[in-house]
Amino acid sequence: MKVKYIIPLIVVLFAATSFSADAQKQVRVKKSEFRISEDEAFKDAWKEVKKGNRRYRIDKKGAYIEALQNYLTAYEYNQDNAALNYRIGLCYLKTNSKYKALKYLDNAYYINAELPDILLYRGMAYQYNHDFVKAITDYEDFLNAANTQKKQKTKTMVDKRIEECQAGIELKKAPVRCFIDNLGEGINTAQPEYSPVFFLQDSLIYFTSRRENTTGGRRNNLNMMYFEDVYSSRANNGVWGEAEQMGKPINTKHNDACVDISPEGKELCIYRGHKGLGNLFNSQYKDGKWDRMNKVTRINKRKYKESSVSVTADSLTLYFVSTRKNKLGGGQDIWFSYRTQDGDHWQRPEPLHKANTKYDEETVEISQDGRTLYFSSKGHNTMGGYDIFKIYRNDDGTWTDPVNVGFPINTADDDVFFMLTPQENIGYFAADRPDSYGDKDLYQVVFLGPVKPTNITEGASDEDIAYFMKPTTESDIEKPVNIKIIQLSLVKGIVTDAFTGNPLKATLELVDLSTGKVVKTLESFAATGAYTVPLPPGKDYSLTVGAPDYFFYSENFVIPKGETTLVLEKNVQLQPMGIGAKIVLNNVFFDTGKSILRPESFPELDRIVEIMKKFPTLKLEISGHTDNQGADAANMKLSQNRAQAVVDYIVSQGIPSIKIVAQGYGETQPRADNKTKEGRQLNRRVEAKILDN
What is the pLDDT of residue 261? Predict the structure, then answer.
């Protein structure tokens, strides 16, 4: 039986640099020219050359990586052999750390300037080192010296590279004011790491890597590298813990790469090779584990591959990358689709023409407000390979022209898999840089914004700008790019048992108090009790948390209008249903000094009704409490009347009056100091307490 061809995500993205196969064959390391002595050192070095030659001829990335190690070992014996320097340089250009090729190609040129296409390859090396002026000189000298046939074959490619260098010169004149830092050894290894997706406001990361412990232990025939698997890591005090390999059904014996996650962390999208083409799959997090994978319906096409996806926070629009045909003729383009009215499917996709070029586009990321799309492209004004770009959607639905996010985020090599935190001032991406651990690594970028004038929305503090990980390096720059801070806040927390501290799987409901409408219902993770939800600012919300056999929890809070970097932490402790268990009914409201229930109190009290119907033997005390403002007797009467108003409503919903009693305590049981406004507010409350179950 034939084994189907499985395409890894990294092969889709990181295609090898174009080379002349004829030139490679012409340049061989000859034994007579390599030998400088007749001893064991020569014999050992020559063995390494022969091993390197065998692997070099395989012409695949993984084989070039292994050949490079053989050649570098042989290089210790003879550093002045032109052919060996040439092959080491080409190995670097064909794998990772392309900037390292310059030393060897420069050596090769000065030893033998007649080596085939040496000016072309050295020009590439100069470009990867951001010496764009020298790169342009080598490219032009190469074209001037090329015969007619060679010029016809290479001119389009070389002209494109000259354009990239010219763009690089301009981008370096106005670098972005930012910190860029490697995420560290907890995540990054000598193997490639890429495609980060986040949950829990940067405390949990999922990513893709190609390590020796890949599920099934297989290598890919396209590049001789290990198959892709999905890993996860959790941050503790700003340091990423050792990554763990995810099990089934996320990882299989084939290539598996994560590409997106829902805002609540309950749906993970995976790119998976399938019958020679790549497709997108979803997995739902249910009952404390990831469910089986399902294809993204109406997006995947049998004749094409879909390799990257990003869904808006409201789950109504999906952006993805596909090889399906587009009028611009590019190999990979960005497409979008709207969800159908029934919410179960996606409409027929359309190409996003403003982003697409005749070159490849990749790795889409839509901002939380659905207005800014980040993507990587080999077109537009890239400075080499894939650069990261952004486009902004206007109010009329049109898109602005793409803008290169700038140097040093973008380099002459591939810069991809860019994504942002909800605050939009911290991003993550994959790149191969001088401080990489050996291949593509994951990096964090903290946008500092311009010095004068500030372009960041007023109200953001220094702590907001760099709130998560303290960076160690700074790019010295003169002019920044404008960073748009998106109007979105985040509520996150952990739900636990009030007595044991164990995490709980609970249902959380958020209501817009101005309309009474439920804006979001979600569940916390059973394993960690964690939850997170993005919310627009400028609203009053009520939060209710419930779990089977536990007293529910409620509170209300305000997200101020115009707030852009707010992260509200709402940790919840639920009390088991037992005698003495007590909760504050935070979403029960009265007008000042009165005991008439306001209508927005009814949903809270209806939950009490549901609990009492579910547990018919339950007996409750409803207690009223006040602050110390006013006369003691008046406070006692007001608290009793408010407690009785709550009891009257509950009884009106079918609960026997014998099961519930009202008790006013006035100001006698304060929860906080009455000397402060905040303390007095906490003391004005209604509570429910279990007397018998």
Answer: 83
**What share of residues in the chain are helix, strand, coil (percent, to 5)?**
25, 30, 45
Are residue 595 and residue 652 in the same domain, yes or no?
yes
Strand-strand pairing, 244-245 and 267-274: unpaired
Distance CA 490, CA 522 (A): 14
pLDDT block averages, 10 residues each, the chain of length 693: 46 51 70 91 95 90 89 95 96 91 96 95 97 97 93 94 97 92 90 83 80 83 81 82 89 86 79 67 83 74 76 83 74 87 79 92 87 94 95 92 95 91 79 88 84 40 26 33 46 86 88 85 77 81 90 87 69 89 87 87 88 89 92 92 94 92 93 89 90 85
Single pTM value for the model: 0.66
In a domain, 542, yes or no: yes
Contact 115, 82 (CB under 8 A): yes
> CA geometry: angle at 10 spanning 8 and 15, to 5°?
110
Residue 683: which domain range? 577-693
> CA-to-CA distance for 586 and 115, rounded, in angstroms?
79
Q: Is 351 helix (H, G, I), strand (E, B) or coil?
A: strand
Residues 148 and 201 in one domain: no
pLDDT of 477 reads: 30
Terminal alpha carbon distance of the chain: 65
The tokens describing 179, both together, are 């910190």
Report yes or no: 301 and 321 within 8 Å, Cβ to Cβ. no
Cβ-proximal residues to 483 (8 Å cutoff; 6+ apart), any chain: 424, 425, 447, 449, 455, 456
Q: Considering the domain boundaries, does residue 452 fall inside one?
A: no
Considering Cα of 327, then 328, then 329, then 333, what sign does the dihedral take?
negative
Of the candidates 576, 604, 620, which is a domain's last residue?
576
What is the rounded distance in angstroms from the CA atom of residue 661 to the CA atom of residue 681?
Answer: 24
**What is the CATH number for 252?**
2.120.10.30
558 and 607 assigned to the same domain: no
Task: Judge if 236 and 341 occupy the same domain.
Answer: yes
Helices of type H across 245-314: none
Within this chain, do residues 27 and 144 fall inside the same structural domain, yes or no? yes
Residue reference for tokens 């840089």: 433
